[in-house]
From TrEMBL:
Keywords: Cell inner membrane, Cell membrane, Membrane, Transmembrane, Transmembrane helix, Transport. Belongs to the GSP F family. The chain crosses the membrane at residues 184-206, 236-256, 392-411. This is Type II secretion system F family protein. Residues 84-207, 288-410 form the Type II secretion system protein GspF domain. The lineage of its organism: Bacteria, Pseudomonadati, Pseudomonadota, Gammaproteobacteria, Lysobacterales. PANTHER family: GENERAL SECRETION PATHWAY PROTEIN, PROTEIN TRANSPORT PROTEIN HOFC HOMOLOG. It comes from Stenotrophomonas bentonitica. It is a multi-pass membrane protein. Its main location: membrane. The keyword Transmembrane helix applies.
Amino acid sequence: MSVSRSAIKKEPVVRNTMELQPFVWVGTDKRGVKMKGETPAKNANLLRAELRRQGITPNVVKPKPKPLFGAAGSAISTKDIAFFSRQMAIMMKSGVPIVSSLEIIGTGHKNPRMRKMVESIRTDIEGGSSLYEAISKHPVQFDELYRNLVRAGEGAGVLETVLDTVANYKENIEALKGKIKKALFYPTMVIAVALIVSAVLLIFVVPQFEDVFKSFGADLPAFTQLIVAASRFMVAWWWLILFIVISAVLGFIFAYRRSPSMQHGMDRFILKVPVIGQIMHNSSIARFARTTAVTFKAGVPLVEALGIVAGATGNKIYEEAVLRMRDDVSVGYPVNMAMKQVNIFPHMVVQMTAIGEEAGALDTMLFKVAEYFEQEVNNAVDALSSLLEPMIMVFIGVVVGGMVVGMYLPIFKLASVVG
């Protein structure tokens, strides 16, 4: 809720369990000072009555106009949820009641979808629901891990501490994801641009050279003939090639999302790719260790925690391994023994887990494991970027430069004959 002169006059608040809509209003207080603000209410008449009760004479009360474009707002991202968790933790630690915290966060958020969701959570809590019950109505934004951590925090009476832990967790995981995307995005985009440039040369530039070559009346070098043939094919069938490429990409994405066996196969393949595979290994271990440490520290039982953690590893191979670990732990195996049985975790991780279990500090050890492997990912991504830059330059030089050389070969040949 935004209001001018908020330090002079408290913003009127209309609470109603029924659906509210935002209104903007302009009025004057008892001293004749002009005030304005934005307040959710069921209708304008109720808002006017509430304003008068607060000592404000309303002059204008009307529904807040919707923006012409982007009225629905952007989708709620993981960063939005991380920021929400951080704000909640800070305000609750400062002694601000949970309902007031939600009201402040919801009103101050720029994304209408996020604002609407926070308002819904606040309304549910005012109606007697716990925070866990309120966020459970939004499973897309608050996954099973988040919900279980909040439930554990509420049960133990340390909700603000758990929310702070969740905020740290979300921020670390997002930073890790960002590093992985950076490692994969840069070379992919450069190669894509090189292929697009090559296609433009073949479709628009090479045909111009071909007309010039015909006037020579001499045989073209074999390499130039190959480029000319590729150009003719591209000019005649570019639409079919474009259709096949787009269909293949969309088909792959659709099949990957719908087929668990394909996801399993792709994740296994990625783990075996040189350099990239090691980054993905380290990333999955870091996410497993951090997520397990956070859930265990929050008081979630270990077997239940492993069930939640499995889906947070970001890789089907690790997900299946963690689920097997959960089954072993549920029948009495120590975590380090179950980890050793799946034969996918490095010896160092198994040993640190064993030490943590023996010392009764499993969460502390797993946090250290997570920090180590997150740093390994950072180092590997930086090294990969340094390694790929010269290789990408060579690729572009071979593809684009080779095409340019092929076009000028007949000219060089003609010049040597004339000379």
